[in-house]
Write a structure and sequence with these properties.
There is one protein chain. This protein has about 230 residues and is α/β, with parallel strands linked by helices. It has helices at about 15-20, 35-45, 65-75, 100-120, 145-165, 180-185, 195-210, and strands spanning about 25-30, 50, 80-85, 125-135, 170-175, 215-220. Helix 4 links the parallel strand 3 and strand 4 (about 125-135). The structure holds NADP nicotinamide-adenine-dinucleotide phosphate.
């Protein structure tokens, strides 16, 4: 489900539409449950993926450190698109969350993704896109999710504002995943109600290869067959 309306007139001749394969795409968080599925799915479609992790063996970055983001962009050179499937925020009841819990959540999941866009301007080819990640808790908080919900909602607000300011030059969107089935299994739950990471990756593909900007895409279940 798309929350706000797509305005196709905003992008005259977007690069992403003309270049459906062979795009050089940075995937931050490529070793994660979501990021690995997105990187694999885009790669299967003929895209050229630059994988980045936090602590892996190849390219690494710390989202919460703007110097690290600048260094990463300098190393990689020009890109056609950026996907962020990373971002840490702290769970816990409001009265147990510390100053550090809030600060870390803001610096990592919120400002990390904001700075990924800010530092990417000029490094991503004009007409390219940024696709960020929030989460279903941003609009539907539950117990012990205050900080997670807060930063996710802020990422969504950022995307709506940034898309207006970058209109015609860059597209900026966010996927709001529901609970990922593999993550449920990791903590001993059944996979459903959840969304398999491979099904979730389809929403990212749409945003990377499409024309949308300023969209918050809720991705709680697999897209029905045949629905673009
Ligand atoms: N899984 C879910 O059910 C779900 C639902 C809604 C929203 N989300 C959101 O989706 C995002 C990805 O979730 P996930 O479950 O795929 O996470 P995950 O499996 O834990 O993977 C996280 C990825 O981010 C990287 N990373 C960790 N800290 C980082 C940092 N400081 N800077 C840059 N990269 C960093 C990790 O690299 P290393 O492997 O090197 O540590 C890994 O590649 C998160 O923001 C999460 O809140 C997840």
């Amino acid at each position: 489900m798309v929350v706000n309306q797509f305005r196709p007139s905003l992008l005259a001749e977007p690069l992403a539409q003309e270049k459906l394969a062979g795009m050089k795409i940075l995937v931050v968080g490529s070793s994660g449950i979501i990021g690995s599925a997105v990187a694999n799915a885009l790669s299967e479609r003929g895209q050229d993926i630059v994988e980045v992790t936090h602590s892996g063996e190849g390219l690494t970055v710390d989202l919460s450190d703007i110097a690290s983001l600048k260094e990463l962009y300098d190393k990689i050179g020009k890109l056609d698109a950026v996907v962020c499937a990373a971002g840490v925020a702290q769970f816990g009841p409001l009265e147990e969350l510390s100053d550090d819990d809030f600060t870390q959540s803001i610096e990592n999941k919120l400002m990390g993704q904001v700075n990924l866009v800010r530092c990417g301007i000029g490094q991503v080819t004009e007409g390219g896109s940024f696709t960020l990640t929030s989460g279903g808790l941003s609009q539907k908080p539950a117990a012990a999710t205050t900080a997670v919900s807060m930063v996710g909602a802020a990422v969504e607000a950022f995307v709506k504002g940034a898309a207006i300011d970058l209109e015609g030059r860059y597209r900026v969107n966010v996927v709001s995943p529901g609970w990922v089935a593999e993550s449920r299994i990791q903590i001993g739950l059944g996979p459903m109600p959840g969304i398999w990471a491979r099904d979730l990756a389809e929403y990212y593909i749409d945003l990377v290869e499409g024309l949308q900007t300023g969209q918050i895409v809720q991705a709680e279940t697999a897209k029905p067959d045949g629905i673009p």
